[in-house]
Design brief:
It contains ten helices and nine strands. It is α/β, with parallel strands linked by helices and about 280 residues long.
């Protein structure tokens, strides 16, 4: 096993452990990018980005939307849309209850309308703390309804992805959401409306293979893991050593999968500029 792959594996394991904590309130944190310890307050002040190496810590959906949207402009849509247990999957109901208690969300997707720099938009964000941001029937329904709302009201659409993919506890019902969300995004595009997809760490599986990859403009946070299967799965399948940084946001930018890698501190201004240009392009 190569040293590069070992370092990548160890870094991913450290990041997974960190995601389970999401920068705790009552203790210091160790950055998985530079392995230095620092106070949580220092990280929070820097938009949950390591001030030493620039590593982007994962953040929840509500916090992310607060960072991006104009103050008090967010109006939630379809908040009551939550998952059931269609397959009676063992322990699934218990996991849903725990995820709701931990995040304060009914589902892994938070959707609604808001303004960025004064420009109205429909916006949604996935929360990686909720079963790794996986897409089940409810998440797919919320994304679809948001896209349909944006189409009906002639609004640009912004979706921020952070997901482990389709939710296995819902089987084929979760996989069906890939086609459903993609179709809704397609109708939004046919109406001549802007869709901006923002990829954060990690964006994988069925989310990558559906709405996350369909943006008119696709942005990514620095260092984000982006792909369908994980690097370890791919390497074990093909029996070859993967390139250094394979599936990172920077690798995807170099190979044309994303349009820009945008630091968290610049994302709000970047989105506001895209919305402004879209409005000017419409002649309004």
């Amino acid at each position: 096993m190569s040293n590069a792959f070992t370092r990548r594996r160890d870094r991913l394991m450290a990041m997974k452990e960190l995601r389970d904590r999401y920068v705790p309130y009552d203790q210091g944190v160790t950055c998985p990018g530079c392995y230095r310890s620092m106070a949580r307050a220092e990280v929070a002040k820097n938009l949950y980005v390591c001030p030493l190496c620039g590593h982007h810590f994962p953040i929840g959906a509500r916090r992310r939307l607060r960072m991006l949207l104009d103050r008090d402009s967010f109006d939630e849509l379809n908040g009551g849309c939550v998952s059931a247990d269609p397959l009676a999957f063992p322990e699934y109901r218990e996991k849903l209850v725990k995820a709701r208690e931990r995040t304060g969300l009914g589902e892994a997707a938070l959707t609604g309308t808001g303004r960025i720099g004064g420009y109205a938009c429909a916006v949604g964000a996935l929360d990686g703390r909720f079963l790794m941001g996986s897409m089940g029937a409810a998440v797919g329904e919320k994304i679809t309804r948001l896209a349909e709302y944006a189409t009906a009201h002639a609004l640009p659409l912004i979706l921020i992805s952070a997901s482990g993919g389709a939710r296995m506890q819902e089987g084929i019902l979760s996989l069906m959401q890939m086609a459903k969300t993609a179709a809704a995004i397609g109708r939004h595009g046919e109406a001549g409306l802007l869709y901006v997809s923002v990829l954060t760490d990690p964006t994988t599986g069925g989310v990558t293979a559906s709405f996350a990859s369909l943006g008119d403009v696709t942005l990514a946070e620095p260092g984000a893991l982006i792909g369908f299967a994980g690097p370890r799965v791919i390497q074990q399948t093909i029996g070859q050593t993967l390139p250094e940084g394979f599936q990172s946001a920077e690798f995807q930018l170099e190979h044309g999968f994303v349009d820009a890698v945008v630091p968290r501190s610049a994302l709000r201004d970047t989105l506001a500029q895209l919305l402004m240009l879209h409005r000017k392009g419409e002649g309004t």
